[in-house]
Write a structure and sequence with these properties.
alpha/beta; eight-stranded parallel beta barrel; 42% helix
Amino acid sequence: MKNFRQSLADKVLVFDGAMGTSIQRLNLTSEDFWGKEGCNELLVLSKPEAIRSIHAGFLDVGCDVIETNTFGGTHVVLGDYELSDKVYEINLKAAQLARSVADEFSTPAHPRYVSGSMGPGTRLPSLGHISYQELYQAYREQAAGLIDGGVDVLQVETVQDPLQAKAALNAVYHTLREKHIDLPVMASVTMETMGTMLLGTDMLGALTTLEPYPLDIIGLNCGTGPKAMSEHLHTLAAHSHFPISVIPNAGLPHNIDGEMVYDLTASELAHDLSHFITGMGVSVVGGCCGTTAEHMHAVVEKAGKLNPATREPSFTAGATSLYSVSSFKQEPAPLIIGERTNANGSKKFREMLLVGDLDGMVGMARDQVDEGAHILDVCVAYVGRDEAADMDDYINRLNSQISIPIMIDSTEVPTIRVALERITGRAIVNSINLEDGDAKAEEVIKLCREFGAGLVCLTIDEDGMAKTAEKKLEVAQRIYDLAVTKHGLRESDLFFDPLTFTLASGDEEFRKSAVATLDGIRLIKKAFPQAFTSLGVSNVSFGLKPATRHLLNSVFLNMAIEAGLDAAILHAGRIQPFFQIKEADRKVCEDLILDNREGDYDPLVSLLELNTDLVAAAKNKVDLSTLPLKERLAARIIDGNRSGLEADLEAGLKEYSALDIVNNILLDGMKEVGELFGAGKMQLPFVLQSAETMKAAVSFLEPFMEKTDATAKGKIILATVKGDVHDIGKNLVDIILSNNGFNVVNLGIKVSVEAMLKSFQDEKADAIGMSGLLVKSTIIMKDNLEVLTEHGVTPPIILGGAALTRAYVEQDLRKNYSGSLAYARDAFDGLKFMQQIEAGTLEQDLAATQTIKKSKTRKAVTKEFEILQPAKQIPVPPFWGRRVVEDVDLNTLFPYINQSALFRGQWGFKRGKVSAEEYARLEQDTIFPTFEKLSAQVVAENLLAPKVIYGYYACQSEGDRLWIYTQPNDEKPKHFIDFPRQAEAPGRCIPDYYASVESGKRDVLAFQLVTVGTKATEYAQKLYNDNAYTDYLYFHGFAVETAEALAEYWHKQVRQELAISGDDGDSVKELFRQKYQGSRYSFGYPACPELKDQKIIFDLLDAESEGITLTEEYQIVPEQSTSAIVVHHPRAKYFSV
């Protein structure tokens, strides 16, 4: 009978469907679980006949492989049920049970197999929930039980964290070696609907991390339905040399009245999986959550009889971080390995290490990323320190805060292991050599094999550093034989470093050393074409002046690349483009490198005589340590650089008073920040980083200020107007004003004009600032101005908010107020106005810039209103009345987030004056990693709680009125809504889209109310109170746009339920452009501006019973919520009245 690998080579293998879904359908009792309800794995002991029947059901419809009921079979999960002592027993019994059922169905013509299911558990090592070692040991115990129970294949599935996958795979392979057994192993990752794994790793990153392991199958399971897996499968089909598996859910889950419902039919699943087989060469298919025996029967009948398409994959080795892949083969070369995070090579980094300044060390890493490094070399070795502990602390920070992969620079095995057990992606180890023979090198080689790491190999043996090209090749061959032939690394895992020596000494022994290095590169590349070469470039210039070093390094790098160099360890910010180097300077460097001495001409002497004061890259960042103290402090504010801030402030206090530092140094920095923002050269998140630095500086200086010290700046009362719960804009104004020396009294949200007036008088303030988001708030502002005028109190007023326009303030509001009135487009406008108030020039400055234009007279309507024909067919809803949907998977929503609205609108990453290339770099280094990090954080910490209340109601139109019935057969309507009509053609009004009373028909109306919960508001407020301004901006915007994404996503579900989704666009971006049938209208917006009509939605949906309420001004609490009326008519589109 064929074994698993033989069958895999011969045919498409069909795995079974969902164990969890099948168990739920059995309606088991608590007694069936021995009182530990929810622990499905325990059923192999407590009710084995139930699991046996599920296995038999899948085999009966023709599945080739059944998975053991051990998805949560480690002590990490079972310990929560006090079953840690039964881990081995449960896995053993589960495997034996599945084995016995499979054997009953197996025949020579149709062999059946058992796959040992190993899920991700409930704790992710990359987030610090669990250590690598604890997770590794947990998987060891599970693997032992499954192997002893007789499984045919071990299946590490639903991988959410690459480090978790490495722990599981290492446990599996170790256990197999220990038992002298060879079984197939498959790894299956879960890509969420946002397009990455839970923590932010994309498909190529996952493949690059797992590719070094000797897998039999790699693939995808869970997370989404098959359609959302298509892009990831294209990546695997193009690059994976392993057979591919795809085991999707039956679509996306919906919690309908407490029941999890999946929407993909059996025929749809079979169709999609068939496409993956014939179109992308998939070899293994199956079903995950929501798939039943009915689903798998359809898959067996349609997909199981197909042959996979032939693939010709192409894979380039690389290293990975949590967020990105750096290919070892860069075009153009080289792979740049940043050298500054090295305690032996950088004095600045070493000093930070010695005082435990992790923030500064991370800052240096970020600088390397900004300067173009592809990989970060990390060395924390220093005499007298615990290198392993230092490495652990630093890697822990870099893992989530730096976007590029890591090279572990150490020769100490314990340190290398600590780092490899901490790094999420695929690392490179730097390095091994043969100075002490083979033994120590072999230890490191084994570690690299275990963790799939790349390895730098120095051409050093017992005789020392190889000096000739031939000797360099000889040592490289010895290392190759040791690493590849003996221990099983691949040639493509290796970087050979032929070493170079300084040319600065003039020592005759080394005058031709650079030539030997270049020739060594050529020989090694010829001998080992799949391996890579690397070089510590800056060694060639050791001992020269900095500027001269930069010049020689730049020329030598170019020559090394021409010789075949793949990777260079260097300070990228100190390398000059070759074309920018003067020809004469380049010639001197080339002559030194090639040892072209002739007569009295010595290129070393000529190089030392060059005027190198002018030789430096013009675009390098200024080294803060070289600046005078005042400029250094101001630069820290501008850059948002807190590393070393307190030391500089202490130095400043020796020369200036604390008040002078604030008023005359730090505020100058904030002023430049404002100018950069106004010129479009700085994005809002970086402005907030500057504000956080300013806040930290002022907090440090406050104890040194006399109580009588005052900045003499003005005071403003800030408030969001009555009924409005939105405070992000107001809080940003608070941050900018307070960090520019102004005194801000922030009254919060839903503030009455009486409270503003009292605070203004009590605080003896200079101005009032009012903020509001919605159209209704602009009306409240108008009323507030009239009240202030009636009281005879007319201080300068600054107005801001999304619904305001300059024209409305200057044309409509100014005539209702006798005091100074200014419209602030953003926080820096507010700063400008406060500065003008302080200077006493506000009124004349406003007069000079006023943009009032004479309003145009509206032309009389001459075109007749269009009479809209009713929909040809009124959809039939799946139910009447309301339903509540909870536990909507956040990862399902993330692809529906409008990234343009989030990145540019909420977060303020406007391109402004920066180049397209700079903005693309900003997206890669800051915007997308922030989005991915937040996506993972809100899931891991349960910061957002999506909830939907929606319902279908009968309705009829009568002119501008819409009658609403709770049931289609009700005689009398329960509610009505009067909608405004356009004054001009086509004269549209929302009731036009529904069947009229005269028609005698009852139409269908859908309402939806969505929220992401109160915790979002509470967490945002905590960040603000903690002065974490940048995080506050990011999180608040993310929560708002997630609520909007939920509205978009649920609108799509409504269209599907009404069977009108056939015209939906193929992408989410098309949905944003309203490429679908019908429309979704929210109250407070142009087509239905009356917020008070939301009362009817809240009544029909009984929203208050779910913790969602309306303010007295009809705004929704929690803030990150939105309601809508969903119209099905094909002609329904957005319009304004």
